[in-house]
Design goal:
- This protein is 71% helix and 0% strand.
- With 149 residues, the protein is mostly helical.
- It is elongated.
- The relative contact order is 0.19.
Amino acid sequence: MNFFEAIGANRPLICAACAWTLAQVLKFFLYSFIEKTVSWRRLWGSGGMPSSHTAFTLALAVSIGLSEGFQTPAFAIAFALMGVVIYDAMGVRYETGKQGAVLNQILNELFVQGKPLTDERLKELVGHSPVEVLGGALTGIIVILIFYM
């Protein structure tokens, strides 16, 4: 079996990739509907509803558990990775996004006062709220159910 056949036969990896893809597509359509504008960046960008990071790592961990067993070291590693990714998404990256929003507000106020420093906008959608993480978890679960039912 060559490399590409092996990747294509790796059910947990394919399941996780499908969960990420579904989350990104949902994110694009939800953003377009709510903001009433199309942003192609939402197909690839981080942040927003649902969390594709959560969907990916949850689908990977549960898929490994279902295929290899929940008592295996492979599941333990995937579960630990999922925990770190979700913690980072809701913690560090979420706070970074809030800071980006405040800095962008400061820059806007400086431009209004005629003291421009830069016109570069900082990225505000880098992390996830708990609701967005829950949305990613539900997306991952849906993909797992489709793959394993």
